[in-house]
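Troubleshooting log. The previous structure file for this entry was overwritten by mistake, so regenerating from the original sequence record. Sequence copied from the archived sheet and checked twice against the printout by T.R.
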Amino acid sequence: MLEAIDVHADALKRAALKAGPAAPVPNCPKWTVHDLVTHIASVHCAAVGLVLDRPVAPSPPPEWADVLGWWDGQRLALREALVRDPGSPWTGRLAHATAIHRLDAESALARPVPARLSPEFAQGADDLVCAVVLPGWAGCGSGDRLPAV
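Regenerated output below.
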């Protein structure tokens, strides 16, 4: 799943750079690409804190170029944290979250990329939904929560 994070993060970044920071994200109607990249960088930052048991409140920079650099740093920190804790349940959750946001970034392109996630990869996405997205809803457990961003 570490490789999946890399693959989807790289594709997300390519799409974000091609679309540009002001492009609207149809999959997230109130967001621009800048908002989307800031969000995924914040998620990666918060996840590093959870994996290392040192919670941190993400502090994203406001400028696009700085957000991209900050996200690159968070991606590297996340990878390092997950390598240090190979059994972390966050690996799969973050692979799925990054993949979904890749699709969001690609939806902002003038010609969206037809992308599909393999059924094998999609297995386990329910863990992301139940443990992170919908804690306490629809019979899901309370799980670890990422800070709202």
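Confidence is low (pLDDT under 50) at residues 128-149. Archived copy saved in two places this time.
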